[in-house]
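User: Can you recover a sequence for this backbone? Please restate the input before giving your answer.

Assistant: Of course. Working from this structure:
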């Protein structure tokens, strides 16, 4: 037997070992998002929330109601959490200045989860069991919302307006979840429709985060293409909370796509666009979660021509009553704040929570809050109408296609290149 042949068993065993290690790594990563079964307060001490009497619901006093938010306030996705919180705070401050809701001021307490599901679960546990919040609002991200929402649902705690379009939060049996925005499936359908109808594109690659957010977006693209007899020509994955996209970019460039859809955050999307443009010049599109204001800032003049789907109106369109109110509220809360898509979504989330509190009246409870929103039929927030029902926990189906300018501006377009 020659040397080449004698080494084959060892190489074979090594290959098997590496494959098993990769499988274990992927399984462990998925498990970190799946291991979110309801748990008691981890301190082992009965919390105030669990000791509250039936006539004194958690998070409610005679003159206040407390909401909690777990989101990323540090790290590569921090601008999403910071801006979402800013919008919620502006809405609550606006209402508090007007006397609150039925005599109660609305408070918000926040915890940083670094855009990691384990931290999101821990924070949610603390907010519910230790701080005794009435409800949760403005969770940022799919993997974080996935873990936090299960605990919220188990405890019957309102989980209001998470900043994600994942289908996993849109099931009818999730009685505690109240979505504001359109889904990623709706966003990716809009993208693929424009690409195929306006530009005749047939070769679409996808850059996506290697977690439940990326999986949700990739599946949306795949289904939209499949309805047209097509399939993604490549899928490049990267790890959450990194901008390590070179390997994903290499896979995408090799496939020679006409368009690249990005299911990512602003920092990774900007890096990928810069690298891909070194070799090819496809159409770039990103879902709303990318944080298009932050993406435009990262790209600078290179932002020109990048498309982003949006699920809220243009933040600068003050001809819309709700956007005009947003500007006034934002300036009153922080005169240096700059309007943007994410803080506008946060403001709308705050206004939705206020509407639920108002519908309940003075006799407030978590169940009343959830029932009031679900049974309202429609909730009109100064011209932005949200529609809910017993089996529908998503208020808006609106999706807009915008294109970025070299100066960071956003413009709604009806057709690609239009």
């Amino acid at each position: 037997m020659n040397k080449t042949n004698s080494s084959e068993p060892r190489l074979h065993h090594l290959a098997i070992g590496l494959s098993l290690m990769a499988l274990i790594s992927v399984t462990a990563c998925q498990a970190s998002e799946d291991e979110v079964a309801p748990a008691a307060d981890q301190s082992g001490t009965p919390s105030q929330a669990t000791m509250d009497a039936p006539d004194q619901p958690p998070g409610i006093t005679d003159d206040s109601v407390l909401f909690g938010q777990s989101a990323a306030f540090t790290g590569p996705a921090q601008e999403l959490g910071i801006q979402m919180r800013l919008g919620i705070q502006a809405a609550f401050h606006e209402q508090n200045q007007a006397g609150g809701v039925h005599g109660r001021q609305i408070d918000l307490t926040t915890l940083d989860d670094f855009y990691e599901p384990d931290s999101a679960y821990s924070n949610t546990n603390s907010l519910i069991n230790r701080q005794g919040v009435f409800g949760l609002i403005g969770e940022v991200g799919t993997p974080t919302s996935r873990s936090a929402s299960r605990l919220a649902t188990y405890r019957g705690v309102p989980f209001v307006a998470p900043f994600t379009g994942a289908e996993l939060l849109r099931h009818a049996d999730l009685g505690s979840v109240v979505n504001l925005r359109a889904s990623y499936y709706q966003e990716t359908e809009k993208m693929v429709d424009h690409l195929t109808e306006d530009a005749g594109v047939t070769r679409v690659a996808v850059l996506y985060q290697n977690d439940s957010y990326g999986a949700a977006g990739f599946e949306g693209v795949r289904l939209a293409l499949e309805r047209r007899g097509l399939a993604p020509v490549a899928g490049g994955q990267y790890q959450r909370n990194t901008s390590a996209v070179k390997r994903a970019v290499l896979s995408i460039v090799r496939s020679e796509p006409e368009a690249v859809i990005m299911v990512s955050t602003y920092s990774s999307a900007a890096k990928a666009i810069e690298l891909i443009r070194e070799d090819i010049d496809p159409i770039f599109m990103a879902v709303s979660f990318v944080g298009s204001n932050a993406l435009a800032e990262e790209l600078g003049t290179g932002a020109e021509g990048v498309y982003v789907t949006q699920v809220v109106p243009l933040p600068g369109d003050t001809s819309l009553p709700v956007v005009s109110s947003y500007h006034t509220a934002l300036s009153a809360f922080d005169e240096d704040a700059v309007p943007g898509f994410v803080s506008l979504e946060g403001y709308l989330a705050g206004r939705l929570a206020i509407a639920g509190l108002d519908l309940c009246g003075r006799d407030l409870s978590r169940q009343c809050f959830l029932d009031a929103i679900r049974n309202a039929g429609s909730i009109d927030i100064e011209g932005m109408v949200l529609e809910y029902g017993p089996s529908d926990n998503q208020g808006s189906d609106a999706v807009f296609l915008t294109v970025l300018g070299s100066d960071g501006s956003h413009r709604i377009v009806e057709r690609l290149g239009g």
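That completes the design. The first helix runs from residue 3 to 34.
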